[in-house]
Amino acid sequence: MSTLAESAADSRSDRVGLADTHCHLTDRAFADDLDEVVARARAAGVTHIVAVGGGGPIEASEAAAALAERFPFIRATAGIHPHDASAYDDAIEARIVALLEAGRVVAVGETGLDYYYDHSPRDVQRSALARHIALARKHRVPIVLHCRDAESDLREVLASE
Predict the structure, then answer these.
(1) pTM
(2) Peptide bond connecting 36 to the previous residue in cis, omega within 30 degrees of 0
(3) Fewest CB within a 10 Å sphere: which of 14, 76, 110, 124?
(4) Distance between CA atoms of 115 and 67, rounded to whole angstroms?
């Protein structure tokens, strides 16, 4: 951790403040200045951050979990974004489970349905979402949902699960 982020963390670690529950800190846009981004958030009063891992393929979840290991005030989520649902298989699910069991991952997701782009077939998105819901139930954690142009189907999947 950089000195700047470290000092911001030390000065705010026991104060209640703002929680950012949906950060995509693993996005390439933050690759060069992540420590400074985190330090600015802390200086602005953000005391808790949830780094969303399901903003892409499984590697995004693993990177978010690594951030949660690096910064004591960050937790992560793990899952597969609906855009990447076509890649969801037993091996990916095992990697999500490993992240959930490691302790710093506090939710499944970001998962859901995205019918605007349709990067993955709709039936595949629904299946991946159902599997994510089952994981969240099994591990007793919340689920972070993404929905774009698919509200009716999202309600249907949630009701059936």
Answers:
(1) 0.86
(2) no
(3) 14
(4) 30
